[in-house]
Protein backbone atom coordinates (compact mmCIF):
# COMPACT_ATOMS: atom_id res chain seq x y z
CA UNK A 1 0.00 0.00 0.00
CA UNK A 2 1.77 3.14 -1.22
CA UNK A 3 1.36 6.77 -0.29
CA UNK A 4 -1.05 7.40 -3.15
CA UNK A 5 -3.40 4.74 -1.78
CA UNK A 6 -3.54 6.52 1.57
CA UNK A 7 -4.29 9.87 -0.05
CA UNK A 8 -7.18 8.50 -2.07
CA UNK A 9 -8.72 6.98 1.10
CA UNK A 10 -9.53 10.47 2.49
CA UNK A 11 -7.18 10.25 5.50
CA UNK A 12 -7.43 12.19 8.74
CA UNK A 13 -4.91 14.84 9.84
CA UNK A 14 -2.57 12.34 11.53
CA UNK A 15 -2.21 10.23 8.35
CA UNK A 16 -1.75 13.38 6.21
CA UNK A 17 1.07 14.48 8.53
CA UNK A 18 2.94 11.17 8.13
CA UNK A 19 2.38 11.20 4.37
CA UNK A 20 4.05 14.63 4.20
CA UNK A 21 6.94 13.51 6.43
CA UNK A 22 7.57 10.46 4.24
CA UNK A 23 7.40 12.53 1.05
CA UNK A 24 9.86 15.02 2.56
CA UNK A 25 12.31 12.22 3.29
CA UNK A 26 11.76 10.43 -0.01
CA UNK A 27 11.85 13.34 -2.47
CA UNK A 28 15.64 14.02 -2.38
CA UNK A 29 16.30 10.34 -2.99
CA UNK A 30 13.90 10.21 -5.93
CA UNK A 31 15.38 13.40 -7.38
CA UNK A 32 18.95 12.04 -7.08
CA UNK A 33 18.03 8.76 -8.76
CA UNK A 34 16.04 10.35 -11.60
CA UNK A 35 18.46 13.20 -12.41
CA UNK A 36 21.89 11.73 -11.67
CA UNK A 37 21.88 7.93 -11.49
CA UNK A 38 19.55 6.87 -14.29
CA UNK A 39 20.85 9.24 -17.03
CA UNK A 40 24.45 8.11 -16.41
CA UNK A 41 23.68 4.41 -16.32
CA UNK A 42 24.15 2.34 -19.45
CA UNK A 43 21.30 -0.13 -19.62
CA UNK A 44 22.34 -3.76 -19.81
CA UNK A 45 20.94 -6.96 -18.37
CA UNK A 46 22.51 -8.10 -15.13
CA UNK A 47 23.57 -11.41 -16.67
CA UNK A 48 25.74 -9.66 -19.29
CA UNK A 49 28.28 -8.38 -16.82
CA UNK A 50 31.58 -7.70 -18.55
CA UNK A 51 34.83 -8.14 -16.70
CA UNK A 52 38.01 -6.45 -17.86
CA UNK A 53 40.69 -8.92 -18.87
CA UNK A 54 43.54 -9.03 -16.39
CA UNK A 55 47.16 -9.96 -17.07
CA UNK A 56 47.75 -13.67 -17.49
CA UNK A 57 49.95 -15.65 -15.13
CA UNK A 58 52.96 -15.46 -17.43
CA UNK A 59 52.82 -11.65 -17.23
CA UNK A 60 52.84 -11.60 -13.41
CA UNK A 61 55.98 -11.18 -11.33
CA UNK A 62 56.86 -13.96 -8.90
CA UNK A 63 56.19 -11.84 -5.81
CA UNK A 64 53.01 -10.17 -7.11
CA UNK A 65 50.33 -12.08 -5.22
CA UNK A 66 47.53 -9.72 -6.27
CA UNK A 67 48.30 -10.25 -9.96
CA UNK A 68 48.36 -14.02 -9.40
CA UNK A 69 45.02 -13.85 -7.58
CA UNK A 70 43.42 -11.83 -10.40
CA UNK A 71 44.80 -14.25 -13.01
CA UNK A 72 43.43 -17.17 -11.00
CA UNK A 73 39.97 -15.56 -10.80
CA UNK A 74 40.09 -14.90 -14.54
CA UNK A 75 40.99 -18.56 -15.08
CA UNK A 76 38.01 -19.66 -12.97
CA UNK A 77 35.65 -17.39 -14.92
CA UNK A 78 37.03 -18.68 -18.22
CA UNK A 79 36.53 -22.25 -17.06
CA UNK A 80 32.91 -21.55 -16.16
CA UNK A 81 32.30 -19.96 -19.56
CA UNK A 82 34.00 -22.81 -21.42
CA UNK A 83 32.04 -25.37 -19.41
CA UNK A 84 28.77 -23.58 -20.18
CA UNK A 85 29.61 -23.49 -23.90
CA UNK A 86 30.37 -27.21 -23.79
CA UNK A 87 27.05 -27.87 -22.02
CA UNK A 88 25.16 -25.90 -24.67
CA UNK A 89 26.85 -27.85 -27.47
CA UNK A 90 26.12 -31.14 -25.69
CA UNK A 91 22.46 -30.18 -25.29
CA UNK A 92 22.17 -29.21 -28.95
CA UNK A 93 23.65 -32.51 -30.08
CA UNK A 94 21.53 -34.63 -27.73
CA UNK A 95 18.32 -32.79 -28.70
CA UNK A 96 19.16 -33.28 -32.37
CA UNK A 97 19.68 -37.01 -31.82
CA UNK A 98 16.45 -37.23 -29.86
CA UNK A 99 14.50 -35.33 -32.49
CA UNK A 100 15.98 -37.07 -35.55
CA UNK A 101 15.65 -40.60 -34.21
CA UNK A 102 16.99 -43.06 -36.82
CA UNK A 103 18.24 -40.32 -39.16
CA UNK A 104 21.25 -39.43 -37.00
CA UNK A 105 23.50 -38.48 -39.92
CA UNK A 106 21.87 -35.05 -39.79
CA UNK A 107 23.44 -34.56 -36.35
CA UNK A 108 26.99 -35.49 -37.39
CA UNK A 109 28.14 -31.85 -37.84
CA UNK A 110 26.91 -31.03 -34.33
CA UNK A 111 28.63 -34.13 -32.98
CA UNK A 112 31.94 -33.10 -34.59
CA UNK A 113 31.66 -29.55 -33.23
CA UNK A 114 30.89 -30.92 -29.76
CA UNK A 115 33.74 -33.45 -29.94
CA UNK A 116 36.24 -30.76 -31.01
CA UNK A 117 35.12 -28.47 -28.19
CA UNK A 118 35.33 -31.35 -25.73
CA UNK A 119 38.90 -32.15 -26.79
CA UNK A 120 39.87 -28.48 -26.51
CA UNK A 121 38.26 -28.25 -23.05
CA UNK A 122 40.03 -31.38 -21.86
CA UNK A 123 43.39 -30.24 -23.21
CA UNK A 124 43.04 -27.05 -21.17
CA UNK A 125 41.29 -28.17 -17.97
CA UNK A 126 41.46 -31.96 -17.86
CA UNK A 127 43.75 -34.12 -15.68
CA UNK A 128 44.52 -31.34 -13.21
CA UNK A 129 42.60 -32.58 -10.20
CA UNK A 130 39.89 -30.87 -8.21
CA UNK A 131 41.73 -27.77 -6.99
CA UNK A 132 42.78 -26.20 -10.25
CA UNK A 133 44.78 -23.01 -10.31
CA UNK A 134 46.07 -20.91 -13.12
CA UNK A 135 49.63 -21.93 -12.28
CA UNK A 136 48.89 -25.64 -12.72
CA UNK A 137 47.13 -24.88 -16.00
CA UNK A 138 50.13 -22.87 -17.16
CA UNK A 139 52.50 -25.69 -16.25
CA UNK A 140 50.24 -28.17 -18.04
CA UNK A 141 50.32 -25.99 -21.14
CA UNK A 142 54.11 -25.71 -20.95
CA UNK A 143 54.56 -29.48 -20.58
CA UNK A 144 52.17 -30.11 -23.46
CA UNK A 145 54.10 -27.73 -25.71
CA UNK A 146 57.38 -29.48 -24.85
CA UNK A 147 55.78 -32.87 -25.55
CA UNK A 148 54.39 -31.72 -28.89
CA UNK A 149 57.76 -30.28 -29.92
CA UNK A 150 59.44 -33.59 -29.20
CA UNK A 151 56.78 -36.11 -30.23
CA UNK A 152 54.28 -34.27 -32.44
CA UNK A 153 50.67 -33.46 -31.63
CA UNK A 154 49.09 -35.56 -28.90
CA UNK A 155 47.20 -38.48 -30.36
CA UNK A 156 49.09 -38.46 -33.65
CA UNK A 157 51.32 -41.40 -32.82
CA UNK A 158 55.07 -41.48 -32.42
CA UNK A 159 57.19 -38.96 -34.28
CA UNK A 160 59.71 -41.06 -36.26
CA UNK A 161 62.20 -38.17 -36.55
CA UNK A 162 62.55 -37.71 -32.81
CA UNK A 163 65.66 -39.07 -31.17
CA UNK A 164 66.46 -38.67 -27.52
CA UNK A 165 69.30 -36.32 -26.72
CA UNK A 166 72.34 -38.22 -25.51
CA UNK A 167 74.27 -36.57 -22.73
CA UNK A 168 77.73 -35.54 -23.76
CA UNK A 169 80.68 -36.73 -21.79
CA UNK A 170 83.79 -34.64 -21.66
CA UNK A 171 87.10 -36.30 -20.96
Number of contiguous helices: 5
Morphology: elongated
Distance between the termini: 97 Å
pLDDT averaged over residues: 85
Total domains, how many?
2
Count the beta strands: 0
Structural class: mainly alpha
Give the percentage of residues in beta strands.
Answer: under 5%
Order of helices and strands: HHHHH
Secondary structure elements and pairings:
Blueprint: H1 3-8, H2 13-40, H3 65-100, H4 108-125, H5 134-151
Fold and architecture overview:
By secondary structure, this protein is mostly helical. It has two domains: 3-43, no CATH class; 57-151. The chain has five helices and no strands. The model has no long low-confidence stretch (mean pLDDT 85).
Question: How would you briefly describe this protein structure?
Answer:
By secondary structure, the chain is an all-alpha fold.
Amino acid sequence: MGLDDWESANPNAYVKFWINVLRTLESPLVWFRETIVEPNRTPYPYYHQKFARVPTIDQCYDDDSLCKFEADEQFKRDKKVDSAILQILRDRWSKCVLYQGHDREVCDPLKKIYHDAEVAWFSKYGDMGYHQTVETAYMKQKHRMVWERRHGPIGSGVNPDWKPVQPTTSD
